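Supplementary notes for students who missed Thursday's class. We covered one full example, reproduced here. Read the sequence, then the structure, then the short commentary at the end.
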Amino acid sequence: MQKIQTIIQATTVTATIPAGQTTVNVSIPITDDTVGEPTEDFTVNGSVTSGNTSNTTDSGTVTITDNDTPAFTVGDVTVAEDNGSASVPVSIDNPSSVDTVVAITTVDNSAEDPNDYTSTDCYGNDSSRTDKRECKQFQLQMIPLENRQRTSR
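Structure (token representation):
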């Protein structure tokens, strides 16, 4: 079995708090990427190497909130009735570091299920599918006019 080794890179700088002052700020660059990701954090450790304090070590946490959280969109589609299906795009506006799962439902308006379309899930009602992450588009089954059965209201 191959052993995987993680290398953590630590950077050490020196911060000097001048006599008579209580604070200095240490600038730590943050990398701005374009991937949506969860909030992240890292630890900043400090050790007094010279001076007079009641403790010689302390640490703080830097929390990085993401500025690239993707927004999702369900697209509008116009389709001829004899087309057989409508391919509705479901998308996010920038990549994410995790799978984005969108629950899809249909709601009757002037078109009604099952008279005008067949409600289906993102996977075409295929219950044998186990890896549902591959879903790219939601399909609506369009029923040609001659095959419709009218229901009485």
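Commentary. The two ends are 67 Å apart (CA to CA). Residues 132-148 have pLDDT under 50 and may be disordered. If anything here is unclear, bring it to office hours.
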